[in-house]
Amino acid sequence: MTNKTKGIIAIIIAAFGFALMSLFVKYASSDIPSTQKVLFRNGVSMIISFIMVLKFKSSFYGSLKNQPLLLIRSLLGTIGMLLFFYSIDTLPLGDANMLNRLSTFFLLIFSAIFLKEKMKPYQVFMIGLAFIGTLFIMKPTLDIVLLPYLASIFAAITAGGAYTVLRALGKKEAYYTVVLYFSTFSVVSITLLMLIIDAPLFNYVAMDLKDIIFLCLAGGFATIGQFGTTLAYKFAPARDISIFNYTNVIFASILGILAFGQIPDIYSIIGYLIIFAAAYIMFIKGHKQEKTLETY
What we know:
This protein is 78% helix and 0% strand. It has helices at 3-27, 34-56, 67-90, 93-100, 103-114, 121-138, 146-169, 175-196, 209-235, 238-241, 247-260, 266-295.
């Protein structure tokens, strides 16, 4: 088995892990606020990443000079996850996961702004095309129903920002350290907010055993997704395997149909196809350009 094949398998497993995370988050009682669901999800990740840090003898919270980047990544990641979990609770799984894939396009925008990575004309065009696909999924009307769609888009924006910070970090910190830092930050900050703020979104709701099991499974599968993604990019470069990350939307849509009878309407399907086409074209053109550079 080649490294590229291993990378493809790893990223598909990661995509399936994240789809199962979405499923179990949605399975948990709708009475449980998104903040509490994120708390449990990241609590599981914190425990697992803590064990991994111990095993590989990595730094627990990173070097002093990297603290600003680690803090920004953790803040953006926490906000993004809160918004994404809210969208999972209120939208069909396929819609929520596809809109979250827009983070790829926001990464390009933020990398151009903050990391001075020049965007090529075709990338600008594909970003515009992806947003047209977004409109098909959202089917915008002057209605409160727009809120969960907007939450999902803002989740993608913050995720794109978090990935940009990770690119700035590069290999300065071990992956397990970054995950532990983020998970710990999220658990501590959300716990403090739930203790300080008296509002439905931050009020703790008593859970039965079923909900606890569902949220622990969500955390476990999310961690599989995180580690699977890391392994994938160790085996093969992003240009060869990144497009397979979109299998997450296929898995999420199938799980949504089987578990909740959420069949995407024709407009959502058109939106999926447009966004996937934009991502695929960027993948193909980027792959060809990098191959051309390698020949020189």
